[in-house]
Amino acid sequence: MKFTDEIARRRTFGIVSHPDAGKTTLTEKLLLYGGAIQEAGAVKSNKIKKGAASDFMEIERQRGISVATSVLAFEYDGKKINILDTPGHKDFAEDTFRTLTAVDSVIVVIDVAKGVEEQTEKLVKVCRMRQIPIIVFVNKMDREGKDAFDLLDEIEQKLELRVTPLSFPIGMGYDLKGIYNIHRKNVNLFTGASSKDIHSTTAISDLNDEKLNQLIGDPAAETLREELELATGIYPEFNRQEYLDGELQPVFFGSALHNFGVKELLDGFIEIAPAPRAKNAEERLVKPNEKDFSGFVFKIHANMDPRHRDRLAFIKIVSGTFERNKAYKHVRLDKNLKFSSPNAFFAEKKEIVDESFPGDIVGLHDTGNFKIGDTLTSGEELHYKGIPSFSPEHFRYINNADPMKSKQLAKGIDQLMDEGVAQLFTLELNGRKVIGTVGALQFEVIQYRLEHEYGATCSYENLNVHKACWVDGSVAKPEEMTDFKRVKSKFLCKDKRGQLVFLADSSFSLQMTQQKYPSIKFHFISEFE
Ligand code: GDP
């Protein structure tokens, strides 16, 4: 197959949702269509149920054996589909944000009864900021939930989207009769049958067709006609370009559990979702069909087995062909590296592959060369943008609890930070180390992993920090900068990239500082223009 055809047939996306909305169930059903798995229950939920570190560790251990859950690839209708896993748990939101830099589109899953939930709001905001095309799937239509119009309203308001339904439910919950596929003009009847079955549909090109009454009964047919007429009046006509530009979001309804409405979603998805898109590097815009290879690391997965300390760095290919055993430039280290066993991911397994194309994810064995955000190229000096760090929510001093193991501790901290488990700040004044995390759970995870993987023990000490503020002195008056550094020396530190960070202890003190030094800019995010 030609290089350009390989690119054109790829669809790389993420499913985002609040925990329990049905992401795992939907993923599994999508894989069934691809024939990638044979039965339900094959996709492991990556859910942290008790909110405990032990839960996380268990999941990670399983993944260490089968890291395939991070990327699930399958073939459907001539398309190569790559689903990137995004943790729903809020403590791992940063991981999800990073994964969103590697997707070309997303499907947002919403529970019909619960409507738009907190985590969905946050994640969709990030997608909107990056103009990622979004498809919405309203799930659990087999249960009583909100009225379709009310829910579409809620999605528009809370998620600040402009929606248009491409399928429409006929009843819901106990009375769910089926789905009308607006896009393809057919009816899919709900039988509540086995979730493995692929349902057949009945074409209804004209809504006034009597056949509709025979299929779903007079009252339901009348209601559907009225609702669709109303919907046509309220919602804009679907326009693919607007969807691709992030200006219009199509909505599908269904029940992942019953494999209902999922085919409509999948067929719609492969028809409209974008092939790999061009990506901005600091130097220039890079197009997928360029001959030279380039890609970036968006995730690093450590092997949880202490006897095998290797890690897997996940690279999203942006341009060109990635080939096995060819030397590529690690731009940050200015070093050429060859990879003899790059992994590609299929439903539940990984395999060594000779060639991969834009849109694909390859897993490279790494002994400590990679950090999240690193760029790999055929030789060009490129730096992909867009994997910033956000201000953590929780901060603690980390102390060495075993003086004999200080080397192990330093190495462990270093590597865990490269993986993006948490952020490390080093105080300017005394060199003390501060760990910042999104959720409290990570502190336990770090302690556990330091002990089990590096043989080091640590203790924590509370530290009162409101926000980490990256200091932008690009237009600062020198005298303001000097005074700021002197007065606030106790609160200044460096992040892992060596950028200056001010740890403000309260919003009040941050406000006062901003007033006192108006020429210095403070950002809650590590990348700024
Ligand atoms: P995730 O946290 O988003 O991955 O959610 P899961 O896929 O694990 O689903 C959470 C729960 O909702 C599970 O008990 C599922 O069986 C259930 N569920 C998922 N989809 C549906 C659906 O369409 N209908 C009903 N009734 N339950 C569903």
From TrEMBL:
Compartments (UniProt record): Cytoplasm
Domain Tr-type G, chain residue ranges per copy: 8-277
Record flagged with keyword Nucleotide-binding: yes
Primary localization: cytoplasm
Pfam families: EF-G_D2 (PF22042), GTP_EFTU (PF00009), RF3_C (PF16658)
Taxonomy, superkingdom: Bacteria
Binding of GTP, residues: 17-24, 85-89, 139-142
Keyword field: Cytoplasm, GTP-binding, Nucleotide-binding, Protein biosynthesis
Known role: Increases the formation of ribosomal termination complexes and stimulates activities of RF-1 and RF-2. It binds guanine nucleotides and has strong preference for UGA stop codons. It may interact directly with the ribosome. The stimulation of RF-1 and RF-2 is significantly reduced by GTP and GDP, but not by GMP.
Family annotation (HAMAP family): Rel_fac_3 (MF_00072)
Stated family: Belongs to the TRAFAC class translation factor GTPase superfamily. Classic translation factor GTPase family. PrfC subfamily.
Name of the protein this chain belongs to: Peptide chain release factor 3
The species this protein was found in: Nonlabens dokdonensis
